[in-house]
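Example 9 (inverse folding). The structure is encoded as follows.
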């Protein structure tokens, strides 16, 4: 996701009145309002999604953290502002099951964005959730991909130092890329299958703040 798509979202977003239906029915209805997408899917910077459907988040069941730093340790809650309400923007039908893998975004038309993947059954019940990405404008230290066999791969830049790295002021930092792969079991639960770490490198603000730089491509770049 990016700030330009989310500004457009303010115009096309279809809100389902949370006061009229339960959270379960809200999500179930939202899923009928967007077309299923095909796998593999790469949630790269600048990918365009055709429709965004606003959903309710009763009792904050879907994690709604919006981040101020690269590490994801400094954050606030999207529920603090109704303009930052969640929007469902993609769905993937898991073959031979009654389960749907869906992507939800928090952040509205702000710089700070967070994507959460949810697995939903045919009745609209959320079976499990997984934070899959977050960004500040084009600076995106965490992103996701979905493979042909519906595994979710989350790629994250994990700084090697302990000091907080604010999005709005850093110049560069050292970090390693970490890939975590999840499968979805028959109960709709995310199961971590693999973790892979790559050598640490120096990343600059200029490099990260470009549309062409995705976390999984970082090994292709000379980041020094």
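The amino acid assigned to each position is listed next.
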């Amino acid at each position: 996701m990016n700030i330009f798509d989310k500004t457009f979202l303010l115009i096309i977003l279809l809100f389902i009145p949370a006061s009229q239906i339960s959270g379960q029915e809200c999500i179930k209805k939202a899923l009928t309002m967007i077309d299923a997408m095909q796998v593999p899917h790469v949630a790269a910077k600048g990918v365009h999604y055709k429709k965004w459907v606003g959903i309710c988040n009763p009792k904050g069941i879907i994690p709604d953290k919006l981040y101020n730093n690269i590490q994801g340790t400094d954050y606030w809650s999207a529920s603090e502002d109704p303009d930052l309400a969640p929007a469902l923007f993609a769905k993937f039908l898991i073959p031979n099951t009654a389960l749907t893998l869906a992507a939800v975004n928090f952040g509205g038309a702000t710089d700070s964005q967070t994507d959460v993947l949810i697995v939903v059954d045919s009745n609209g019940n959320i079976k499990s959730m997984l934070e899959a990405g977050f960004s500040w404008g084009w600076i995106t230290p965490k992103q996701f991909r979905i493979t042909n066999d519906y595994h979710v791969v989350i790629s994250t830049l994990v700084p090697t130092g302990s000091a907080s790295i604010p999005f709005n002021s850093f110049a560069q930092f050292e970090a390693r890329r970490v890939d975590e792969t999840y499968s979805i079991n028959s109960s709709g639960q995310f199961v971590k299958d693999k973790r892979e770490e790559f050598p640490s490198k120096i990343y600059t603000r200029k490099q990260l703040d470009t549309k062409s730089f995705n976390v999984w491509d970082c090994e292709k770049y000379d980041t020094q």
